Amino acid sequence: MHIDPPREEWLNRQQRLQERMAQVGLQGCLVSQNVGIYYFTGSMQTGYLFVPVDGTPTYYVRRSLARAQAESHVRTEELISFRTFGQQLATDYPEVFPPETKTVAIGADLDVMPAQLYLRLTEAIPQASLKDASALLRIVRSVKSAFEIERISNAAAIVAKALESGIDALKEGMTELELMTVIEGELRRDGHIGLMRMRGYNQEIMTGVVAAGDAAAEPTYFDGPAGGRGLTPAGPQSSSRRPIRRNEPILIDIGCCVDGYTIDQTRTAVIGEMSTELLAAYETATAIMRHSEKQLRPGTAPEQLYAEALRIAEAAGLSEHFMGFGRDQVKFLGHGIGLEIDEWPVLARGFRDPLEPGMTIAVEPKFTFPGVGVVGVENTYLITETGCRPLTVSPERIYSKPAR
Amino acid sequence: MHIDPPREEWLNRQQRLQERMAQVGLQGCLVSQNVGIYYFTGSMQTGYLFVPVDGTPTYYVRRSLARAQAESHVRTEELISFRTFGQQLATDYPEVFPPETKTVAIGADLDVMPAQLYLRLTEAIPQASLKDASALLRIVRSVKSAFEIERISNAAAIVAKALESGIDALKEGMTELELMTVIEGELRRDGHIGLMRMRGYNQEIMTGVVAAGDAAAEPTYFDGPAGGRGLTPAGPQSSSRRPIRRNEPILIDIGCCVDGYTIDQTRTAVIGEMSTELLAAYETATAIMRHSEKQLRPGTAPEQLYAEALRIAEAAGLSEHFMGFGRDQVKFLGHGIGLEIDEWPVLARGFRDPLEPGMTIAVEPKFTFPGVGVVGVENTYLITETGCRPLTVSPERIYSKPAR
């Protein structure tokens, strides 16, 4: 069932990291996070990946070594003990850690590595001065290979099918959760692992959010324009037990993670008809999408897309409703997507490095009306040599069903 | 739908933390993790909870402030800016941060807080010397209130119902994933948020694992005795697409998270009959369970339960198969459970602080036979004043269906 990338791809991933490391003077990089380890090795077992600035990486595995050895495409060895990890590294990489040198600059994924582990690693590898290499790792991952693009496309086809099942099942009076359960069942049967991985601390997303009317418009901690009410303050996002009623917008912002790769898409649905105000806001969202598509090409600064979307929203008199409402707005138009849902680049102020071919980006213009609902659309695009190509395959329209 | 604990419970939780802080000389505690914040405030929005060693805590919220103010049971204020967080704390808590003092010992949840955030907080609150307070926080949470016990019992009833639906649907030739999807659908409809929260770094668990025969026995990174094959090396645990066959053990290790609280249980099923060897191992697992039940009472050292279970396994000639196989074994018999699935105490070497009334512990003796399968059982127990009481309600037996 699972297909691996071609052999040279693993080498390419590692070399792109090594180039970045050389540019900033890192002698090595220690990857501790499951997703990061998988990206460079093809395995996700517990351990650490060490990538020297020159030469061959080693995957030091605590558990399960047997499984890691069966799956990994890089040199894979037993992590003898945490306490002696520094000695093991010094023995394996004398050129990185020459005996006469006191400390060497080693990058690590400090945006996800727990502080307790960071402090313990500092003791276990006293010859390493751990630097934050999160940005490097995220930049390397932002440009996808043909293999990765195919995986995301596959996830896109699966989510499109689940949306159709959801629309088929949609009826007045069913709860958000009931509709979500139909969609989730489809996605799971097609290989969704049940979780869309997210890098941000404290962020959780399983299958996205199906939410209607005022419940969709409730503000949340979730780092997106619309999180939904959720079932409980102990799970304050996504679908709730609120019944779906006629003539209100239904936000179907869903995705899945299949073979490790994630897709994210949003469609607006309605039973009956939406008000003129909401229809106008939906049209503004699609206008932003069309305008964004023209700019999604190599060379554009990601922050420009957000700035221009803001301008279109403002011209439509909808600034306060754009990407959440009032003080609960998020300050972006979209995000990179791949093994995680919150990858780089973010379409937000401060992201100036130009778009490159191979980047995959979810663009999600949405408008929130407190007490009323959320309308909008979200597509995932691939940046090509000359522009962009949608990976999302669900037809872009309002999914309406007659009220009876 | 959601029910809050009684008003005095919030004060009690905070006071128990303050007592522990005073014992170890911490002047305050900063809680950053979503679950930790929820435990002390009743809300899970993005921000930080500061608990002084004496006096009233404050929940500093970045987003959504409106939602946090609606949900929180402690003083809730806007986090003005990350950069000035230290000044905001110094202004609000002059007794904790007296102007003449250089640095003050402040605890934090460093086992989950990312290193990057830890380093940034160290700069933003220069007057605080951040200490690892993970153990304190875990100890406080290990003893549950009547309200919490009721929530876990409620989750236990929901998972028992889902198991029945799974057993009804079980038939020869269906895949592990198909059976899991039936169970998950039931659990979701009954309020499972889709994720069983786990504190351990890189650990993921959505609904547990349904796995049969050799797939159940595959070693994994997952910090439990049996993780399962999973769908992909990028999701290397839980159910796979392997068909379930007759006369092989089917591991149904499932749980849910409802209203924030988690339950965890395991039952062994079979279509047809298991071999004498597997039946004997199952009997040893239940013997360990009966022996554990006698020791689950206030005063017992958690590590003693693990040591005695090892002894019973050894006497049965099953040491190498106990809690995983060979070098992929885990070194525990069970774990605390509540808002997270990997709470304290762990029934493992080094856990010597005696059991206390109110602790809730999942006990999971299991035996792994590579290439053949996993058998075992798991119940969650409440420690009472005089012994223990099972919270799990599913009948403890082998769930067998006839092969046709």
UniProtKB/TrEMBL annotation, chains A, B:
Boundaries of every Creatinase N-terminal domain copy: 13-143
- UniProt cross-references to InterPro entries, sorted A to Z: Creatin/AminoP/Spt16_N, Creatinase/aminopeptidase-like, Creatinase_N, Pept_M24, Peptidase_M24B
**Keyword Protease listed:** yes
Instruction: Give one Pfam family.
Output: Creatinase_N
* Region annotation (Disordered) ranges: 223-244
Under the GO molecular function aspect, what terms does this record hold? aminopeptidase activity
Query: Any idea what this protein is called?
Result: Aminopeptidase P family protein
